[in-house]
Amino acid sequence: QVQLQESGPGLVKPSQTLSLTCTMSAADSIPMSGYYWTWFRQSPGKGLEWIGYITYADYSTYNSSLRKRTSISRDTSKNQSTLQLSSATPEDTAVYYCAKIHGSQIATMISHPTKTLGYWGPGTQVTVAS
Fold it and tell me: How confident is the model over 57-91, as pLDDT tens digits?
């Protein structure tokens, strides 16, 4: 069984950095090699939006619309990934999800995100407001 859990502040002030951590727990019998830490978000009334991912080789790729403000890292010793989104605005208000997506499915998930692939956390609401 694989479980992911997002954590972080639910309220961020405009211009501050939005920072979230995702922690994974998985049974040793479940092979996780080849899976990328991936982040998504869903704003009110909109579909899932891919934010970025980091591979097991620490190669990261970001949505072009968010690239200048986004950083994704990972800590293998803690089985965690961290998302940082700088200069937050109210338009960044959304439910943020972390997921583990296999590398073979990344292209599909970038163009057509769906929770039916990979392993997902329950999501965490982040509101950007003063």
Answer: 999 999 999 999 999 999 988 999 999 999 999 99
* 28 pLDDT higher than 90: no
Place of tokens 């890292």: 73
Name the residue among 92, 100, 121 with its Cα closest to residue 18: 92
For residues 49 and 71, give the distance between their C-alpha atoms in angstroms, rounded to a whole number: 16
Q: Supply the DSSP string of the chain, one letter for each residue.
A: -EEEEEES-SEE-TTSPEEEEEEEEE-TTS--TTEEEEEEEE-TTS-EEEEEEE-TTS-EEE-TTTGGGEEEEEETTTTEEEEEE-S--GGG-EEEEEEEEEGGGHHHHHHS--TTSSEE---EEEEE--
Q: How many CA atoms, within 13 angstroms, populate the side-chain half-sphere of residue 3?
A: 4
pLDDT of amino acid 31: 75
Distance CA 80, CA 21 (A): 7
